Amino acid sequence: MDRHELDRMFDGLKPGPGREQALLRQLLQEQARRNRPMKQWKSAVLAAVAAVLLVTAAAAAAVPGLSQKLLAYLGVAPEDAHTAQLLAPGAVAVDIVKEDNGATLHVTQVLRDRHCVLVLAELTAPEGTQLYMGEPDPTGWSTMKGLNGTGGMVFPDFLDEDGEKLDVTAYSHWRMVDDEDPWDNRVTLMFTFAPNSAQKAASLWVPARDLAYFDMEKQAVVPVYSGDWSFEVPLPQGEIGWTLKADRAIGELDGADIYLEELYLSPMTLAVSLRREGGIDFGAPIDEENAEENEAMYSRWLSIGNAKQLILTTRDGETIPLEGTSGTIGIEDKILMNRLTQITDPAKFQGGSLTLEWDFTHDSQETGSFTLSLDDLAPAEP
Fold it and tell me: Distances in Å between the alpha carbon of 120 and those of 98, 110, 206, 230, 302?
């Protein structure tokens, strides 16, 4: 029996949420009502069961280093200690306070895997101030709510142990976490950073300036509160992901061979590293005569991950939905980054598969499909 099967067995035996303390009290009351001593073996069984219930209740109460707001943002229920434990090695609780223009930004939590960093913070303005951030927007533009100033991208810096900037740039922004009272003087914010590089870094410098949001109806950025609360936050050094070194040819695109070099999978992120060999040289001077076709080829290469779909399947045949984001490292290398829509133990995918499909029949006849076995998926080195 492997670890996954053992965990599943214990999950099946574990009482439901809120039942642990009730069962424990019932067991102890039964013992107190008895007029004669229990036989030794019955007492031992009762003590063992009581101990298991106490441990289970304590584990479900909290996981050190992880805030309930962060877990709620990731869709993890408060009583789901097993799922929270999957994230714990990549998390660190912090207590960073920055003040400007009468308002205070309190940074409390960092969670990181190789290709995703989340930083949780709360901005508090003076009493009587209303930090209204607009109506909820189901279209996805709600990401344009936060400490972005003009509502656009922000560019953080990875720093080494000496505070020197590392050569890493990537897509990043603030987003607002659900607010129970949108008219009060507090707003909870999440900074999300999706670096392509797996470089080790000791800390992250995060720009945090001018609270604002994008009003879809007015098609304009609405300033809410001005200030500069930029900060440096330490990064967790634990590893929560699994990897598979593949280096497999997966098909052709516009005369170039496409290779899948590596797959990285954490409980919340899937990153697929691709390499392109042959075909047109995108780094060469532009051929004016064929510029339009060359641009189309380059566009297809950049959007290969979004051309159709990535399908991630566990060894039990369950397909985990993905939310796609994509980034590039260089002209001939690309990382397809996707967020898992539900936090999932990477061990469940060992023996599963990943299928990559692309379809450019709307502007060419380029199609392809490849399925990678995940039998060799294994925990990544920190």
Answer: 14, 6, 12, 13, 31
The predicted-structure confidence for 210-261, as pLDDT tens digits, reads as follows 999 888 788 888 999 999 999 999 999 999 999 999 999 999 999 999 999 9
Amino acid in the structure at residue 138: P
With beta carbons less than 8 A apart as the criterion, state whether 116 and 110 touch. Answer: no
pLDDT for res 355: 93
Residue 101 CA, chain-centre distance (Å), reads 32
Taking CA atoms, 72 is separated from 67, 133, 166, 178, 366, in Å, by: 9, 20, 32, 10, 41
Question: To which H or E segment does residue 23 belong?
Answer: helix 19-33
Report the residue count for the chain.
382
Q: How far is CA 143 from CA 156, 161, 214, 299, in A?
A: 17, 31, 9, 25
Convert the pLDDT of each residue in 342-364 to its tens digit.
999 999 999 999 998 888 888 88
Residue found under tokens 């539900």? 342
Mode of pairing for the β-strands spanning 333-340 and 269-278:
antiparallel
Q: Answer yes or no: is pLDDT of 286 > 60.
A: yes
Residue pair 90/70 in contact by the 8 Å Cβ criterion: no
- Vertex 110: Cα angle to 197 and 160 (nearest 5): 45
Residue of 192, 196, 199, 198 whose CA lies nearest to 328: 196
C-alpha atoms less than 13 angstroms from C-alpha of 143 in its C-beta half-sphere: 12
The amino acid that residue 236 corresponds to is P
CA distances for 310 relative to 23, 61, 248, 340, 358, angstroms: 45, 36, 16, 11, 9
Helix (H) or strand (E) holding 106: strand 103-113
